[in-house]
Amino acid sequence: MSPAELEARLRLHLLPELGPRRLHRLLEAFPDASSALSAPASAWRALGLPDACAQARRTAEIRDRAAAALAWSERPGHHLIMRDTQAYPDLLAELDDAPPVLFVAGAPELLQRPQLAMVGSRRASHYGLDIATAFSRSLASAGFVIGSGLALGIDGAAHQGALDVGGRTVAVLGTGLQCIYPQRHRKLAQRIIDGGGALLSELPLDCQPLAANFPRRNRLISGMALGVLVVEASPSSGSLITARLAAEQGREVYAVPGSIHHPGARGCHHLIRQGATLVETVGDILEGLRGWQQVVPTTSGVLRQSPLLRQLAAAPASAETLSIQLARPLSDVLAELTELEISGQAACEQGQWTIRRL
Questions:
Q1: Is the Cβ–Cβ distance between 228 and 251 less than 8 Å?
Q2: Per CATH, which fold does 299-355 belong to?
Q3: How many angstroms separate the CA atoms of 296 and 339, rounded?
């Protein structure tokens, strides 16, 4: 794609009131973005496009912001991915409102790899954070890219869990890539890039945090994934929006149950009543995605002699009991237990973990 055509697309993308569907309609009506940009305002009106779009396209502000985006894309590790190019993620391209442009910092090739999304409450409990971390570690170890939204709580635990085991994770932002939000996760965002992951946004680079953009962001989290796991969520949580979008997009929806006394479990229980798959172990997810499973072949050999496995050989125990017996954080114990389950060396029945004799 020529620099002139790329600049024209960026200028169109920056126009107010010109969302993905309208921009797609515009590009279908003209040979290229440059032609659309120079067409008379009457042609835009004939397509049902707002006058504000036609009026803003020639302003200095739009030209300057497009030039800044081009300059950004020329730096190492920065990428602009157009919807009609091979680098665009296949699953996302299926959506009617797929973004015309993706801004990516980090490794764009991850967008084509099998991905699972994990979302949940920003005010998660310690239990929820432990579960999210453990599931993320195990799923990343099984070869999946972990997708989430860089928010506080479950999102952050999902990203961190993947990084803990050298896995890959993609953070989808509800802001521009030059406006990392929340500020507390700026270092996490950099660790994701440094760890071989990626940050992604459909929004202009300088877009600030706006409440309306986060539900819009959620359709990308689900749209790039084979399935979405909700770990902990209240009935009003934005995570339920992500789950609903996933179902509408034909993706799998998974939910972790919790205590009936914990408000953060009610959203997950609602999803289960609506047909989401109840998840107690990583195996519940891998069973439905067996064709995508890429378990690391060295896992079982490493775990076979672990202290945790020796403890299980002595007697069945809950994860909480094992945490106390081994004086290890519950999140670490849960992560290793799920890896043992993936490798076929352990199983969980009614909350008690047992060894499988090989």
A1: yes
A2: Arc Repressor Mutant, subunit A (1.10.10)
A3: 10
CA 337 vs. chain centroid, Å, equals 24
Top CATH class, 109-292: alpha beta
How many Å apart are CA 206 and CA 211, to the nearest integer?
15
Q: Are 246 and 222 in contact (CB under 8 A)?
A: yes
State the pTM of this model.
0.81
What angle (nearest 5°) sits at the alpha carbon of residue 99, between those of residues 97 and 105?
150
Cβ atoms < 10 Å from Cβ of 63: 15
pLDDT tens track for 69-80: 999 999 999 999
d(CA 114, CA 105): 19
Q: Domain residues of the chain, as ranges?
A: 1-72, 109-292, 299-355
Q: Say if CB 137 and CB 338 are below 8 A apart.
A: yes
Number of CB atoms found within 10 A of residue 13's CB: 25
Distance CA 38, CA 27 (A): 12
